[in-house]
Amino acid sequence: MAQQLDPVDVVTVGVGWTGGIVGKELSEAGYEVVGLERGGEVSTEDFLTVHDELGYALRYKLMQDLSKETITFRNNVDQTALPMRRYGAFLPGTGVGGAGVHWNGQTWRFLPYDFQIRSHTIERYGRDAIPENMMLQDWGITYEELEPYYDTFEYMAGISGAAGNLQGETQEAGNPYEGARARDYPLPPMETPPALERFIEATENLGYNPFMAPSANLSEEYTNPDGAQLGACQYCGFCERFGCEWGAKSSPILTVIPVAQRTGNYELRTHSNVVELMYDENAGRVTGVRYVDEQTGDVYEQPARSVALTAYVLNNVRLLLLSGIGEPYDPETGEGVVGKNYCYQNFQASATGFFDEQFNLYMGAGALGASIDDYNGDNFDHADLDFLHGGNVAISQTGDRPIVNNPVQEDVPSWGSEFKARSLENNHSTLSIAAQGAVMPFRRNYLDLDPTYTDQYGNPLLRMTFDWRPQDRNLVEHIGPQLVEIMEEMGAETVEGNTSLEGSFDIVPYQSTHNTGGAIMGSDPSQSVVNSYLQCWDAENLFIPGASAFPHNSGYNPTGTVGALAYRAAEGMQRYLGDQQMLVSPV
């Protein structure tokens, strides 16, 4: 029997970037907020001098326990989905701060094109440019409307970078293709090591427009507008899958969560696994959440005036399906919305160069990189191409840690004496560039509940159905050769390029944790789960920020847009708590 708790104003389900931002904004506004996090608490002190590559990078100490909850996966509806028993393609985090603790720190704004992609495509290329079964749609919000929220997130997090489009004027140092911004980044770009200088020089020689990538690894010490103090990056190379020991990688545990706690209106409950949103379908509202204390096994019901579903993409969608909120998506009819438009990211176009000179590649940072956007979005003419969008092209120096840094040429065995010798030879002389390709939504790429497999509580697991489409293959075939040309211009002695995408999507190798969609935003309830304030059409007091709201995936990392949407949702929640009504009228 569940224990009934006293009602509160707001509950957040998950305490990462989105849950932390919502919790901070609502508690500062005077509302009583409870943050429920199924993992434990972590702090900067937990990572001090702990360069444990085996524990964090290979044994996933900051990630979800797959023995208790996982997903099932298949490439198409004719296959039987099987559980993901060990980590591969992506790494959902757990614990306070979520992925905002173990992320690399790459912090992009999506292009203005992204938010109106369907309208733009039809206007420029005609309706026939959208392939059959591509579920392309606008977001229900424009870049210009979202820009102030991007700005707020960047100044809260202390992002390092250089504006390329400041108040509509092109700036020399930054990205000339970005949307107009009201002000520059709060901190200057990171240092530019020799490997990145080589990329910048080569791309300039080829007529591209390189710039230093925006980074949440701070280039200088910084005090944000809330008074949170962050350190300067030491370029130690322990960012990806690690917490930062220097407090120099922006994180919810350094910024928004402590600020929320200082208000006296915020309560953080760890080891609290939400298993259901309590939904009154007749009233069109959620009444609260049901959760399990994972340390005691006790079950609680927490009533709330409003709920923010701020877990990871896959967990957001699964909780909606388990709670019966919204119509589940049906790929056969194309009807329904929950689980629709699942997208991943396409990192298949790449080039690796083997040089006859040494670089100091052990030093680095998660978001230390240089980029070009000449092949991203609609920054190049697609009239004679058989794909939409594109991808950000980048070189990153994240720090080559000792265990898994074994670069060898394609014709070298993956073990044995030759492998060891060539690994040592190539250790500091191998550079790679890749395109982070956008993925468009297709009718039979979606999320639903698995009919066979369950979690530790007997609830159905989430089932993912996903495969590459001709759109993805054509993107790689177009951009891949350009990367080979760039690497050759950089002076590599030998270049190995990946210029084609063969076979089905493989969930085994790691690619990125950039899952998106499943609870998408829009202006039409028949085509989306939430409106432009991330307010659920079927439960007016439920808000669902995060990458689950993306109608497609762009050619960038998602976190900057996730942060902007979280601030938008927090504003919407404050308005709702005052007015108790839908904030946006459906079309």
UniProtKB/TrEMBL annotation:
Matching entries from SUPFAM superfamilies are given as: FAD-linked reductases, C-terminal domain, FAD/NAD(P)-binding domain
Q: Write the record's keywords in alphabetical order, separated by commas.
A: FAD, Flavoprotein, Oxidoreductase
Domain named Glucose-methanol-choline oxidoreductase N-terminal: residues: 230-342
In terms of InterPro entries, this protein maps to: FAD/NAD-bd_sf, GMC_OxRdtase_N, GMC_OxRtase_C
Top-level taxon in the UniProt lineage:
Archaea
Q: Which GO terms describe its molecular function?
A: flavin adenine dinucleotide binding; oxidoreductase activity, acting on CH-OH group of donors
Q: Name one Pfam family in it.
A: GMC_oxred_C
- Please give the coiled-coil regions recorded for this protein: none
Stored Gene3D superfamilies: FAD/NAD(P)-binding domain
Q: What residues form the membrane-spanning segments?
A: none
Q: Where is the Glucose-methanol-choline oxidoreductase C-terminal domain?
A: 441-566
**Family, similarity comment:** Belongs to the GMC oxidoreductase family.
Q: State what protein this is by name.
A: GMC family oxidoreductase
Native source organism of the sequence: Natronoarchaeum mannanilyticum
List the taxonomic lineage: Archaea, Methanobacteriati, Methanobacteriota, Stenosarchaea group, Halobacteria
